[in-house]
């Protein structure tokens, strides 16, 4: 058994991968035979990931706030606490907070043989983000 408490460091999401301010807490890190990577990701209002894919897919579970998720070619969907979203392996997508709300989700995936968790693409532009539904109507 290994308890980690004060040893967990919250870090800011790098600007290459995110628009806006995002903080990430590492929940589980791959070790030995386990490929499980889990993070608690805190998006400030308007913050979102860039477009990206995951080699073995990804599950996110919303724990707080209100946010959006979109796969390439699909509509922007509203996600709320208690919602689970699975992104297929290689499916291009993004996820983030609504413009006037925080959003926190747990993000869980299996890294690939080389330890990679994602392949990153373009940022989600303001124009793409503006296509989200008005959250008052969601
Ligand atoms: Mn993702």
CATH architecture: Sandwich
Spatial order of the strands forming the largest sheet: 1-3-4-12-7-10
By DSSP (H or I, 4+ residues per run), the number of helices equals 1
Largest sheet, described in full?
A: 6 strands, antiparallel
Element-by-element helix/strand order: EEEEEEEEEEEEEH
The CATH H-level superfamily is Jelly Rolls
Mean pLDDT: 96
Count of strand segments: 13
Bound molecules: manganese (II) ion
Question: What is the CATH level 1 assignment?
Answer: Mainly Beta
Q: Say what oligomer this is.
A: single chain
Write the layout of secondary structure elements.
Blueprint: E1 11-12, E2 18-19, E3 22-28, E4 36-43, E5 48-49, E6 52-53, E7 58-65, E8 67-71, E9 77-79, E10 84-87, E11 93-97, E12 103-110, E13 119-120, H1 126-129
The chain binds manganese (II) ion.
